[in-house]
Amino acid sequence: MSTDAAGMTAFLDSTLWAPSLTPSQSERVLRDMGERVVPAGGFACRKGEPVDHWIGVISGLLKMSSVSPEGKTVTFTGMGRGGWFGEGSVLKTEVRRYDVVALRESRLAYMPRATFTFLLDNSIAFNRFLLMQLNERLGLFISLVEYDRMLDPDTRVARCLAALFNPYLNPGSGLQLQISQEEIGYLCGTSRQRANQALQVLEKDGLLSVDYGGITILNLDGLRVFGG
User: Where are the domains of the chain?
Assistant: First the structure.
């Protein structure tokens, strides 16, 4: 795993947690971090693998999902630039319980378990960030159960897109996102055609605008409660 030191420094400086570290803590994190590029369609990690790293998204777009024993794929969430994942499995020292697939070429940062544990033991700010991250993740997964079982496709697409703009889970998104309708379909567990129909409904309601190759969020709060 190679590392571009200057690029990694810039990425860490843009995170919600790294700027609060002490100089010595920052030095260790930068020294220990690795990175790799995952091609579109490639696995960032696989279900059942040992969890040795906490992973951040420097660039790209990922899908967290799992395949049931019956062969049904269940998509949990998407992760874009600035997002981090895998902290629960690192904390519990368990094997990975999901697959993470790159929907487009993605550049990822890898923090070793030993470094993660070091920050837990030595940084109050890092612990505070993790508490907020885990709380946001729990809220997201509770809502996933709701919209998978109860909500219509338009509402599922709205809630799925809103999750991509969560300031803790995906802090690098801004309000514009370069994403294809096919990628939206993958993330929301629907077809490209059905995702397109939902986007037209959401655009008509003034919640977003569909641009060439992407979307712009016009009313994030409205997107989060759409259909509720």
Answer: 5-141, 152-225
Architecture in CATH for domain 5-141: Sandwich (2.60)
Q: How far apart are alpha carbons 45 and 47 in whole angstroms?
A: 7
Q: What's the predicted TM-score (pTM) here?
A: 0.83
* pLDDT over 90 (residue 152): no
How far apart, in whole angstroms, are the C-alpha atoms of residue 145 and residue 140?
9
List CB contacts of 131: < 8 A, sequence separation 6 or more. none
Category of 202 on φ-ψ map: left (φ > 0), alpha (ψ -120 to 50) or beta:
alpha
Q: Give me the torsion for CA of 116, 120, 124, 125, rounded to 10°.
A: 20
- One of 3.40.50.300, 1.10.287.3610, 1.10.10.10, 3.30.565.10 is the CATH number of 152-225, namely 1.10.10.10
Q: What is the pLDDT of residues 56-101, one digit of tens each?
A: 999 999 999 887 677 777 778 889 999 999 998 899 888 888 999 9
Cα dist. 58→3, 48, 198 in Å? 12, 24, 29
Structure tokens at 3: 């590392």
Radius of gyration of the chain (CA): 18
> What is the identity of the amino acid at 14?
S
